[in-house]
Design brief:
128 residues; alpha+beta; 3 helices; 6 strands; 27% helix; 39% strand
Length: 128
């Protein structure tokens, strides 16, 4: 599998874990020392803090709305480090687009750890 395909698979797992409210699946995508900033600007340092926050907010989060995640651009900084721009579109649980909500534009910094891509840093931004 190519690096691009592996990165697309990681992003598909982000979508799957969010849409199905699978906190542990989401948490497993991060390095232990990862930095994550939510769309509302809350900074989380380390997988433990990310896990605690995720376990609180993810259950019930997809009841009325969730999102699709699409790889928009990949910049390989080094062969084992990539900056990945995401197009995040709000959808209802049945998959229909929510046109009156803003898209998100996350940026993930991924690093290859023991042969697998992991999220080292992420910044989610709402597109105004």
């Amino acid at each position: 599998m190519t690096d691009i395909a592996e990165i697309e698979e990681l992003v598909a797992t982000v979508q799957h874990s969010q849409q199905n409210e699978l906190a542990e699946e989401f948490i497993d995508l991060f390095r232990s020392d990862a930095i994550w900033t939510t769309a509302h600007g809350k900074r989380l340092n380390g997988r433990d803090e990310i896990a605690s926050f995720t376990r609180q907010v993810l259950p019930g989060a997809a009841k009325e709305a969730t999102a699709t995640y699409e790889v928009a651009h990949v910049l390989f900084i080094r062969p084992d480090v990539a900056a990945v721009k995401i197009r995040q579109r709000p959808v209802r649980p049945d998959g229909t687009l929510i046109l009156d909500q803003n898209e998100g534009s996350p940026l993930y910094v991924l690093s290859k750890e023991d042969g697998a891509w992991k999220i080292a840093a992420g910044q989610n931004t709402i597109v105004l």
